[in-house]
């Protein structure tokens, strides 16, 4: 039995599924098919190899399930992206009154984070408090992560403050949560405070703070972080380098961004995407297309972000034919599944080039429900090309999806005005005023003396913009 367990553990480390199945057959032959330790190793093997169904078959056949059995199976579902099954299995475990550990809760909470399941997270948080596991670093960090991803940042802050022993993972998770919720200034201030306290730096922490510098276009802070990255030896990390490229590009330093990109000996798809997106942002469309070709020559397969960047570039550059080529390439890709954002970009490309009827046909044929951004893009195109009939259709859909957004009423009014339908334009504006819907106020910001100042200007809107 000991020799079999050692061999199975080796199969787990090396992901040797074929030999592992042979060991499974031997275990059945030796009458060890229901032995708890043997089954736990087999479950671990099958889940590590992505064979959740085989692992579950072993799990269900066990006469006695230890806490390791439950934890391994739940973690397997979570790691393989089957988050719903992980939550269902945890529910079954809870109903059967099985013992739980911090690993049980942290794995299940990770499934909640992937599903943005805020209610389930609150329930798990309550269970953790009852079991006195809420102060455990793994559990508390997992709870913090879910709250942040579910836009419950105040709850995340409370959890963070109550963690007595904050690990580097806890800090980086909280930084990422603040950035995800748009609290860039808070993230930057907290990072500065954490460095004064001597908190350990990780590539995840640096990537999150670099994202803040990129979002606020903080050139000075970005350069300081660049020096810190070199000092601590993180300059060869893919994710840190990608974030640095983004910082320099957003601060207008596209040459410096490219130097960082070119200086990386090995490049992954994230780094290629960061550079392509940087070229696109600066209007260097030809360079972006060349980089896309070089990426394929380097045998790096484009992912959904790559295609999104290329389609977005085509929309802003008015490259209809090129957009069709990239979209066809995406549709024929055997690995990447086109999503609603890709279709939205393609609708934008067609609308901007005056092919509004073709854009409508694409919306009607796509395998997704149309989003507000699609109809908004189409409505904006109708204003330029004075397609009043299609504008009415797009506006009606927008009113259903965004009844509180007054900008859609104003945009419809502008379509009427551009086509000379003055009475309809006045009626659209009147409906906007009567409905109580409001346009979002535009905001600007300026960085001066080390502080970011955000301001807006509220003025009486003219009848036609």
From TrEMBL:
GO terms for molecular function: mRNA binding. Transmembrane segments: none annotated. Keywords: Repeat, Transit peptide. PPR repeats lie at residues 66-100, 167-201, 268-302. InterPro entries: E_motif, PPR_At4g14850-like_plant, PPR_rpt, TPR-like_helical_dom_sf. It holds the Pfam family PPR_2. NCBIfam families: PPR (TIGR00756). PANTHER family: PENTATRICOPEPTIDE REPEAT-CONTAINING PROTEIN. This is Pentatricopeptide repeat-containing protein. It comes from Urochloa decumbens.
């Amino acid at each position: 039995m000991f020799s079999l367990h050692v061999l199975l553990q080796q199969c787990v480390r090396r992901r040797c599924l074929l030999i592992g199945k042979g060991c499974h057959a031997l275990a059945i032959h030796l009458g060890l098919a229901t032995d708890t330790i043997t089954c736990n190793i087999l479950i671990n093997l099958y889940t590590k190899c992505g064979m959740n169904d085989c692992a579950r078959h072993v799990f269900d056949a066990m006469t006695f399930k230890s806490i390791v059995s439950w934890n391994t199976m739940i973690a397997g579902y979570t790691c393989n992206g089957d988050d719903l099954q992980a939550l269902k299995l945890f529910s079954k475990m809870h109903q059967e009154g099985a013992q739980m550990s911090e690993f049980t809760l942290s794995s299940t909470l990770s499934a909640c984070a992937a599903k943005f399941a805020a209610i389930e997270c609150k329930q798990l948080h309550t269970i953790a408090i009852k079991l006195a596991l809420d102060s455990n670093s793994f559990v508390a960090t997992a709870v913090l992560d879910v709250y942040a991803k579910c836009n419950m940042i105040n709850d995340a802050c409370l959890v963070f403050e109550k963690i007595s022993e904050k690990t580097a993972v806890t800090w980086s998770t909280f930084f990422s949560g603040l950035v995800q919720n748009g609290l860039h200034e808070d993230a930057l201030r907290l990072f500065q405070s954490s460095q004064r306290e001597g908190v350990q730096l990780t590539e995840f922490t640096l990537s999150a703070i670099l994202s803040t510098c990129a979002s606020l276009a903080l050139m000075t802070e970005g350069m300081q972080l660049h020096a810190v990255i070199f000092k601590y030896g993180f300059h060869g990390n893919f994710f840190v380098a990608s974030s640095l490229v983004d910082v320099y590009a957003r601060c207008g330093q596209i040459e410096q961004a490219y130097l960082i990109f070119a200086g990386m000996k090995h490049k992954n798809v994230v780094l290629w995407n960061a550079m392509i997106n940087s070229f696109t942002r600066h209007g260097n469309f030809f360079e972006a297309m060349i980089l896309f070709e070089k990426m394929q020559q380097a045998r790096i397969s484009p992912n959904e972000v790559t295609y999104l960047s290329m389609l977005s570039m085509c929309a802003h550059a008015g490259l209809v034919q090129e957009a069709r080529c990239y979209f066809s390439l995406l549709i024929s890709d055997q690995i990447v599944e086109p999503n609603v954002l890709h279709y939205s970009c393609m609708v934008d490309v067609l609308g901007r080039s005056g092919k509004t009827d073709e854009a409508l046909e694409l919306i009607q044929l796509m395998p997704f429900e149309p989003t507000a951004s699609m109809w908004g893009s189409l409505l904006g195109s109708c204003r330029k090309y004075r397609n009043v009939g299609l504008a009415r259709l797009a506006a009606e859909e927008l009113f259903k999806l965004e009844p509180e957004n007054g900008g859609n009423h104003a945009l419809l009014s502008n379509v009427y005005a551009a086509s000379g339908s003055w009475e309809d334009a006045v009626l659209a504006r009147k409906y906007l005023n009567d409905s109580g819907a409001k346009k979002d106020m535009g905001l600007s910001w300026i960085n001066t003396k080390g502080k970011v100042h955000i301001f807006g200007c509220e003025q009486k809107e003219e009848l036609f913009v």
